[in-house]
Amino acid sequence: MSATFKHVMLMVNDVEASAKFYSEGLGLPLKINRPAWAELDANGTTIALHAADGATGGSSPILSFQVEDVQKSVNALESLGATLEGPIREPSFGKVAAMRTPDGHLVSLLEPNQQN
Q1: What is the reported pLDDT for 3?
Q2: pTM
Q3: Domain range for 67
Q4: CA 23 to chain CA mean position, Å
Q5: Contact 101/47 with Cβ under 8 angstroms?
């Protein structure tokens, strides 16, 4: 018998605010939105948000997203309560930013270089 992957679950203090963060800030469609549980579609992978008083994100897991414009994404997420972890960096493959969600989870943003 093998296990079947179901979703990535994040423990959060405020499901409504967290659902808004991912849906409005990153454009992820909401599949389920209840007071203690929400699910978002991350291009076929479900991100589940579970209510938990005193939740802190720590350093794991890290949710990584490819975006069209890192600066616009950073601005949108900051307006929803995220904080930038260090500067936006520009390694050879594009622009990257690390952000903390309002619950302390780490989100990585990548704007890849344009292909010629």
Answers
A1: 57
A2: 0.80
A3: 8-112
A4: 9
A5: no
